[in-house]
Amino acid sequence: MSASLTTAEIATQPDCWVRAAQLVPNAAGALPRRGERVAVIGCGTSWFMAQSYAVLREQAGHGLTDAFAASAYPFGRGYDRVLALTRSGTTTEVLRACTRLRDAGVPVTAVTADPGTPVRQAADELVVLDFADERSVVQTRFATTALALLRAHLGDDLTGAVADARTAVTADLPAALPAAEQTTFLGTGWTYGLAQEAALKMREAAGAWTESYPAMEYRHGPISITGPGRAVWAFGGLPDGLADAIAATGGALEARQDLDPLADLIRAQRLAVEVAARRGLDPDRPRHLTRSVVLG
């Protein structure tokens, strides 16, 4: 793996998750309460983490939870609380949505890395993960730390996930993956958000051809893209018969079901950095991207 800020930040994730779990007692009052009808908003990576959390929260019995891209928030729909995920606290679409919601009397909580940014005025309450902030443009540790915080708040014991994350930081990647011409990421339930995030990391850091789908949808068309020299990466369990279907295409399958899916995302982040290095690209400075999208 090439030396980069992104590489260094990826490696810190297990410790960040431990700190996030320790933060829960103090942060709990600002986070969604059991029984509340909640919407979670974000842009890019934060939107995908919102999707994963929404599924986990409903599965845990905490109440109806929807996830929206901030630019597509349905203002005519009623929620008891809106949770905004925003690393920089400056993203225009998030700030506009939070401000409008707060003005309408909807409680807004923001999870951010920088409490000194405009999100402080746009939200009612802040949960600050400044220890997980990043210097690189590409998000890695802030996103996973935010989701780790939210998982811990739902009652998940992150001990196993942290141990798996320490494994994921150093585990060798199969040789076929960095060399693959194309990779499709699959997920089921809450891990579909992780699949979308893994595909985004590959596009951002390495300009790679990637796609992402719910695992059960893969055979409804997307399987046609898989073949020799291409790969499929599955987060979590595989539907019955899917491994055989992938093998029949001649494509490579990567499915580490022994790892917590969030820890497995670390491996996908590392893959993105490795592919970028092979292509002579700098993962810290992806093409056409900035740390935050601020519109005029």
Largest sheet: 5 strands, parallel
Shape: globular
Helix-strand pattern, N to C? HHEHEEHEHEHHHEHEEHEH
**Sheet/helix structural class:** alpha/beta
Q: Could you characterize the architecture of this molecule?
A:
By secondary structure, this protein is an alpha/beta fold. It has helices at residues 5-11, 13-27, 45-59, 92-103, 119-122, 141-153, 159-170, 176-179, 191-206, 242-249, 261-278; strands at residues 38-42, 65-69, 81-86, 108-112, 125-128, 182-187, 210-214, 230-234, 252-254.
Give the structure's gist in a few sentences.
This protein is an alpha/beta fold and 296 residues long. It is 42% helix and 15% strand.
Features:
296 residues, alpha/beta, 5-stranded parallel β-sheet, 4-stranded parallel β-sheet
Annotate the secondary structure layout:
Elements: H1 5-11, H2 13-27, E1 38-42, H3 45-59, E2 65-69, E3 81-86, H4 92-103, E4 108-112, H5 119-122, E5 125-128, H6 141-153, H7 159-170, H8 176-179, E6 182-187, H9 191-206, E7 210-214, E8 230-234, H10 242-249, E9 252-254, H11 261-278
Parallel strand pairs: 1-2, 1-3, 3-4, 4-5, 6-7, 6-8, 8-9
